[in-house]
Predict the structure.
Amino acid sequence: MESANIPSAPDLPSYHVNFSQSKTGISFEVISPKSEKADLKLVSSAWGDICVIHKGMIHAGKNTFTLRSSKIGSGTYYVISKLSDGEQFADKIVVPGK
């Protein structure tokens, strides 16, 4: 008896933020399933504003923004994303000690 080949459900694209740190700054990689206007800002773990990452159009796929700021030390932060369609996301970012 042959087993049936049942295709798996495709991964649905979702909005999320990745983080990386280098000698020149901190980069935020925003993965978006569609193009739209967005306001992205970095806030502290107590929800206080740190800085604006990007304000304007993001494209479907990967969008990379690099900050070269001395305001961003080790600790826990959130990237707040407000999209033009009204959706809001908060992605937790942990910046390790140097």
Remarks:
- The chain has one domain: 16-95.
- Residues 16-95 form a domain with the Immunoglobulin-like fold (CATH 2.60.40.2360).
